[in-house]
Amino acid sequence: MSLLIAEHLCVLRGDRVLLKDFSLVLAAGELLHLRGANGVGKTSLLETLAGLRSAGGGSLRYARDEAALHWLGHRNGLNLNLSPLENLRFWCGLNGLSGERVTAVLDQLQLPARAQRRACRSLSAGQKRRTALARLLLQERPLWLLDEPLDGLDAAGLALFARLVAQHLAAQGAVLMTSHQPLPGALRARELAL
Ligand SMILES: Nc1ncnc2c1ncn2[C@@H]1O[C@H](COP(=O)(O)OP(=O)(O)OP(=O)(O)O)[C@@H](O)[C@H]1O
């Protein structure tokens, strides 16, 4: 089953055309790595595929609707004055989720208990990234669109991320992610170079 079908998309940034006639099919159980140099348009494409940026043409279809996808930008989307626990509970409230699993999920992301309670501005880049990744497990949507999800993660974080992706793919989810670098061996992906 295809979770995302993009046909003949035109990706824009202001009045500049970054990509023309871009087509893509992402199947359940698939990890697709979008690779390319700085400025080539990976973020703009991902935002267009997520419906966050209007396309200049072409069509975009999801298996169900936009509610099938989870978007994670490279800025993490955290309020730096709040702790990871507070951020995620607030975010759960906004998204109609109970928030009961927040501590368990942060534990699963191996964020130390003390760090879970400190303001995000005092956390390391990797700790903030783990907090942002926790949302994927709280929301459990089938299609993950992730912009530079490996940024800030150490070796243990990479291994953890690879396990989360493997579990998601085994459950018939799909992942489209960007990265400047070749992916580590634990992440076996179809690669698409822009
Ligand atoms: N706010 C903006 N206004 C106008 N042009 C922009 C803006 N942000 C980015 N661009 C331009 O759009 C192009 C694509 O940017 P984008 O961020 O999609 O690339 P990218 O491949 O994700 O880059 P990187 O690897 O550096 O994150 C770049 O040439 C960039 O200069």
TrEMBL record:
This protein's record includes keyword Nucleotide-binding: yes
Keyword Mitochondrion annotated: no
Superkingdom per UniProt: Bacteria
SUPFAM superfamilies the UniProt entry points to: P-loop containing nucleoside triphosphate hydrolases
Domain named ABC transporter: residues: 4-193
Molecular function as annotated in GO: ATP binding; ATP hydrolysis activity; transmembrane transporter activity
Keywords: ATP-binding, Cytochrome c-type biogenesis, Membrane, Nucleotide-binding, Translocase, Transport
One GO process term, biological-process aspect: cytochrome complex assembly
Gene3D superfamilies in the record: P-loop containing nucleotide triphosphate hydrolases (3.40.50.300)
InterPro entries (alphabetical): AAA+_ATPase, ABC_transporter-like_ATP-bd, ABC_transptr_haem_export_CcmA, P-loop_NTPase
Ranges that cross the membrane: none
NCBIfam families the record matches: ccmA
Protein's name according to its UniProt entry: Heme exporter protein A
Organism field: Solimonas aquatica
Lineage, uppermost ranks: Bacteria, Pseudomonadati, Pseudomonadota, Gammaproteobacteria, Nevskiales
